[in-house]
User: Fold these one by one.
Assistant:
Number 1:
Amino acid sequence: MRAMRLLHTMLRVGDLERSIRFYTEALGMTELRRFDNPDYSYTLVYLGYEGGNPGQAELELTYNWGVESYEMGTAYGHIAIGVPDVRAACERIHAAGGEITREPGPVKGGTSFIAFVADPDGYRVELIERNP
């Protein structure tokens, strides 16, 4: 049996270009590919690190044409991204206009050093310090 692997996480966004700017400028991802579907009025943009799959999951931003916002709901938690320096990442994100929702510090009851930021649509992104 072939091994399974996580391919991508999808987020619905209200302003595609604003979200792409956040994930590329503040979080350092690159746009990997884009697919417009005029028959069904949506655009998909895949973002990731180091060229994307294989080897790691990508982020799929889905823009349904004409929809500017979504309700967050209570089931969504967050996306987690490993970074070499949480404080430096927060400074870069803040300088790019991003919102830091939990300042850098140790996780409660653990040893990991983390922070949380919010993307332009309010999705939470956890930054976890990973030393090379």
Number 2:
Amino acid sequence: MTTFFFYGTLRYRPMLELLSGGTGGAECRNAELPGYRVLRSVEGDLPILVEDQAAKAVGTSWTLSLDAQERLDAYELPFGYTRRTVTILVEGEPAQAEVYFPPESLKVGEEDWSFEGWLRHSLPLPMRRAAEIAAHEPPLVGQALQQQGPMIDHRAAASLRARAAPTSLRHRAAPEDFELRRIRPPAGSFFRFEGLEVDHRRFDGSRAAGLPREVMVGADAALVLPYDERRDRVLLVEQFRSGPARRGDPQPWILEPVAGLVDAGETPEEAGRREAQEEAGLEIDTLIPMFTGYASPGNATDHFYAYLAPCDLPDDHATSGGLESEQEDLKLHLLSFDQAMALLDSGEANAVPLISMLLWLDRWRAGRR
């Protein structure tokens, strides 16, 4: 058994139990760590333990099993945290305990981190993140956890953005109208594929039960169509896509809008502006919402936020873009509106998001004229 002192998010018992595999009836006791203070990170709402001889870091003390220690090590250490033995005060009495110290790479702010504030404002995202990590089979450890961390955050944030769209025509669902059960561990290191059993209410009032389904659990994406109204031209992105190649398409270089995943802690609008700069070298001031929706609701969670981006597209605009760090190899095309619409008629524009966005632009443009 090992005694731990938790000063940050692991003070929240449900999260500790998820990540440690359970506390096994261990007693939680209030504790302090003299000579330290917990400050808030510059980015995000992360607790950072720093030395301060005039302070005491407030937290909790737990005595946990070796299995729990190994699980917590597997969660903390890949992200640069180090476990050290310190002397804490448990109800005023000194005791030895293990503490996870944060990596030096985290940027420290000047204000104290608030556990109560984190519970009020930031809890849902890390809890969903912890739930996916805890459910992974085999357990995610070491480099695999570090590599998959960003996409785990993407999926957690996407689930929090899920909102019910209007139901003026379709069935208004109640919580008991459907149930999902995972029947095998998720697979995949970037996107995830889950095997599920689905129960749902049928339109005649009966119940469909035990339906086998497979779902690709992706992330939300922001799609941006740059449009120069004065020159009446658009910018399209061309790149190699593995989906068409795997299908057997002999022409797997695809024309698309500017697009990218919405990072955790980022709004879709912020993601759209960031992607416009990264992929096309454009600084976008205004984004006009087009539509939001599911890309392939029968088998994927992917949800798109589509925007029109009024901007200046001169003749000498860059012809390539993307980030080398993400292995992006993008060719940029400036096309007149008529040329772009002709791609719909010829079938050369064969990515449904681009087709939808060009049709939306056609209607918007007609209203403007």
